[in-house]
Design brief:
340 residues, alpha/beta, Rossmann fold, six-stranded parallel sheet, disordered C terminus
């Protein structure tokens, strides 16, 4: 294996150890003429930065976009970039996408993208048998586990199982989490009534992916009423799961922990596509992306280098080839929805 490949995979291993979110892209097939070669690779970071080489400007932007989507959904995908565009009848899915080559090239390239998102984090609040069993189960799924307890309770927690967060430090802990990590955060409040309200008051405003309250329905209603008195919005109160866990007929602490973990997995899986839709809608609403009227690719406004003005409107393009095609025959591509 060439040294450049070894160095690359050493970098990937280091990023994994550091707990960073990134996607790995690699050229697995090609048809000339294209500038990439088999085995060419790149890393796409969660903030959109890209290191490495998998093709020229057109392929690079396609791979960047697909890498970020794969990272958001948490599933690998094969991206086939074709000059002839998307075949008739082809239905894209999370694992297989065909994208049109927007540059003036007859070449084609297949790129495999493997996402490496940050580990899912389980935040346990309160020391209880169910919380203890849940911590061990979560570790088996390679979740990061943080345990919010009082100073007195922290003495009884196995340090190998979870990092501890002092109850008084919970607001600061949540404030220091990157916004991108919040959709990968699940929280279970299980303080047995000792500080449920205090913990939920800190948790609800940051909107973790999952918030469960281990308490009876009657106790849950009482907690919600107390939170209303503290000014917590109804929309935030509605996100609390109580009773908590899937209805599996659980009775022992271990079985209850399994039912809660199953509910967390269900919520995590169901919400992943929504994350992507929400991001795309937010970007469109804030005017940070526009659609190339020639090839249909998303173009980030901040980094758009290719622009044309026609009849008082500005149009953005992913590459000079699309811009040239539009400039020659704008009426062919012009639709009001694609203008800035």
């Amino acid at each position: 294996m060439p040294d450049r490949h070894l160095q690359f995979f050493e970098q990937v291993a280091a990023l994994k150890r550091e707990g960073q979110s990134f996607a790995l892209a690699m050229v697995v097939a090609r048809r000339s003429p294209v500038s990439s070669h088999l085995g060419d690779h790149a890393v796409i970071f969660a903030d959109g930065r890209m290191q490495g080489f998998v093709g020229g400007a057109c392929s690079r932007e396609i791979v960047r976009k697909q890498g970020l989507e794969a990272l958001t959904l948490g599933s690998p995908r094969l991206v086939q970039i074709r000059p002839e565009g998307i075949p008739a009848g082809f239905a894209a899915n999370a694992n297989h996408v065909v994208a049109p080559m927007s540059c003036a090239s007859e070449g084609a390239v297949d790129i495999y993208i493997e996402p490496y998102p940050r580990p899912f984090t389980l935040l346990l609040v309160g020391f209880s048998p169910v919380a203890e069993m849940l911590a061990h189960l979560a570790l088996g799924l390679e979740y990061e586990v943080a345990w919010v307890v009082t100073d007195e309770e922290s003495r009884d927690i196995e340090r190998a199982v979870a990092r501890t967060v002092r109850l008084d430090d919970l607001p600061a802990y949540l404030a220091n989490l990157p916004a991108a990590d919040l959709p990968r955060l699940a929280a279970l409040v299980a303080s047995q009534g000792h500080y449920d309200e205090e913990a939920l008051e800190a948790l609800l405003p940051v909107r973790p992916r999952y918030v469960g309250l281990l308490a009876s329905r009657k106790r849950g209603d009482s907690v919600k009423e107390a939170l209303r008195d503290r000014g917590i919005a109804e929309a935030d109160l509605a996100t609390i799961r109580n009773p908590v866990g899937l209805d599996l007929g659980a009775t022992s602490p271990g079985e209850v922990a399994v039912s809660i973990l199953a509910e967390i997995i269900q919520a995590k899986a169901a919400a992943a596509p929504l994350d992507l839709v929400e991001q795309q809608q937010a970007a469109a609403e804030h005017g940070s992306i526009h659609i190339d009227p020639v090839c249909g690719m998303e173009v980030e406004v901040a980094g758009a280098h290719h622009r044309s003005e026609f009849e008082g409107r500005v149009y953005l393009f992913c590459c000079p080839h699309c811009k040239a095609g539009f400039d020659r025959e704008p009426a062919r591509y012009l639709t009001p929805a694609r203008a800035t």
